[in-house]
Amino acid sequence: MKAGTVIRPARLSEAAELSAMMRRTFVAANGHCSTPENVAAHLDAMCTPERQAQEIRDPDTLTLIVEQDGRWAGYAQVRWGTVPPAEVALRPTVELARIYLDAAFHGQGIAAPLVSHLLAAARLRGSRSVWLTVWQEAEQAIRFWRKHGFQIVGRSTYRVGDDPKDDWVMMQALPVG
Fold this sequence. Notes:
The relative contact order is 0.18. It is built from 5 helices and 7 strands. Helix content is 33%, strand content 33%. Helix 1 packs across helix 3. The chain has a single domain, classed as Aminopeptidase (3-Layer(aba) Sandwich), CATH 3.40.630.
């Protein structure tokens, strides 16, 4: 891991800061994917301090913060309580629900250790696989996940406000033992 990088669980007291980061990183990565009204509706539904506090308290959700030299660089989240798509046959499984880095930290070698932490957490809880969804038009993200051992196994739809987006379902089998 890069010197100065810390990966740790989010704290309840950080729910508002996490929500603000979620909003920034979603808009930077996906703000162009729909109308401003749909993006705003999505942010208002998914990225509130109250919702983040609820997710931080949820024992079936792990939210990690990644810091670089004391500054928040990004966050990630895995959820054991979601129902996986039928294409994800290896069970038990866990959803890699979110992973975002602030643009200033892209290309600095932070994402790979963050993914490693998430996969290790999944194995520790007995998951046999990890799955995620990724927008079909997010070519860079799809390349990243393939590089980290994920394969496309199906399709899903994600809503940004009332705008449906075609996503890929990607999965990685985890080593046993």
